[in-house]
Amino acid sequence: MATSKTRSADKPAPAVAGKTDKTGKGAAAEYGEASIRVLKGLEPVRQRPGMYTRTENPLHIVQEVIDNAADEILAGFGAHIVVTVLADGAVSVEDDGRGIPVGNHPEEKAPVVEIVFTRLHAGGKFDKRAGGAYSFSGGLHGVGVSVTNALSRRLEVVVWRDRREHVIAFAGGEVADPLRSRGASDHPTGTRITVWPDPVYFDSPRIPLEDLERLLRSKAMLLPGTQISLRIAATGVERTWRFEGGLAEYLAGAVAGELLVPIFEAAGHAPADDPNFAEGEGANWVLAWTDEGPVARESFVNLIPTTAGGTHESGLREGVYQAVRAFAEAHGALPKGVRLLPEDVFNRVSFVLSAKVLDPQFQGQIKERLNSRDAVRLVASFVRPQLEFWLNQHPEHGRRIAELAVLQAQARTRALQKIEKKKGSAVAVLPGKLTDCESTELARNELFLVEGDSAGGSAKMGRDKGYQAVLPLRGKVLNTWEVERDRLFGNAEVHDIAVAIGVDPHGPEDAADLSNLRYGKICILADADVDGAHIQVLLLTLFYRHFPRLVEAGHVHVARPPLFRLDVPAQGKRPARRVYCLDEDERAATLAKLADEGVRVEAVEIGRFKGLGEMSAEQLWETTLNPDTRRLLPVLRGHLDARATADTLNMLMGRAEAPARRSWIEAHGNEVEADV
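Above: the chain's sequence. Below: its structure in token form.
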């Protein structure tokens, strides 16, 4: 099981000259104040480049430059981007946007063009107030082109602005040639950035041209009417993309196989008076259905390709599912006994989705996946009504799509028939407190072990009854560390858990029978406080000690409900919103981020949940139950071997181990910030 890292309570042995430690290495060096190194400027990027970019090849650091050029066009400035791959491996990106500002920053007293290339977390995309430089942009990490500069042997910038040409050059992340003006220029406004990637930081110094072409083609598709060119200096080849038809034209060329119905294209964006989303937030999307062959799927957020999907794709899937299901039910296209699931409807859908989110939250610096919770509701709220209207306008198309979804559902049902028959006999003996789910699909089903009847009531109302079950637990579960297996069922709560999941208690060496397991995920859901943490430990002890095969197979999880709710007032284009924080640290980090965005922190109302029972069903679904927006931790053994894990748990949970626990608390008590 995962455990926290703590320093050893034992005193280190004194170092002796010429001696070696138990590992065979030389005596440990002295650890003092001078041992702490502070990385400055772009040093963190060069020390750990994999934290900031992909290191297989330099394409991603070039993409950061291309993204900036595309953001200018997205903001309404410019219509051309030219990317040139030079013979020496350098890449040049030129646009006709406004040009990077070259004057001194009012606070930093240095040229702005120098700051954005030499400092992390600096850029023009943080300001989301009305009249800011960018309403929508590819991200707010503020590390893009500074990472490009850090990992390049040389980087040169030419800026055309205010009828003058300005140049600056960098080497190894530092200024090599200070900013200077070349004098008056008739060149239109814009920027040209030339990058020489440093091969030291990449597995291969070569930029894959196919991937670069795909990236530029998608940018042209997302910016209808924009001309994007790629020039290869070594071969003289030049390619140009311009999609007047936008997403639909692009998807039509990407779909393999015959279309079942015509491509559906639509868009939806929030108006100025929308109470939930900022003006302009929304999405453009195109959908295509085929009954065979591979599907083509691409998604973007503010023009950034999200190859790993995210919450905006979840919103698209939810909107499509709800629209098709509503049509099928209204038109009698759903045979008796067939229940549609989202995967049935979405399985044969090809799509291109381009979402616009004011403050996108990505997973990691390379922005492959969108994590913004509001994006699910944002996209779904626009997709469902428009698709449902289109299906009812063209019922012949709607019936074909519904028939295809029904065929997918029937195929799924046939594949699971054996499993359903095997588990049918267990229904009659399930505990009365269990609110079961409708599905019998092991991989899909989830059981939430909820602390208390009050929280259980919220969970029952907020859950998706199709695949989520709830078992409320009364009080704290028995400490089962030293309870013999044949006496476990003397405790009603343990008995109910075992019967509900369909697995008998067993030991680590037993060949446990998991064939009757009823849920693919068993989720511990307790309050985000000390008592809740205690209940988590007691349940984790139960599963580790008496259901170890469930832990090893990855079936046990811990849900992470928030402890705080922050009500943030309206700011500029952004309406009032609600932000949830897991703990004190996340609350402090969120408040600091809001302050950076210009929000008056004293105007933020902070509420603390005393328990899950205080949450409404909607809040519990959004923060803790919804697979698209929740934070769920899988329970693993961690880095310790089985013996070390057992010894640690014995020290923590054994009845006769009070002296050992006291010693441990005395050694590590100062490392804990307890919420009591």
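Confidence is low (pLDDT under 50) at residues 2-28, 128-133, 418-428.
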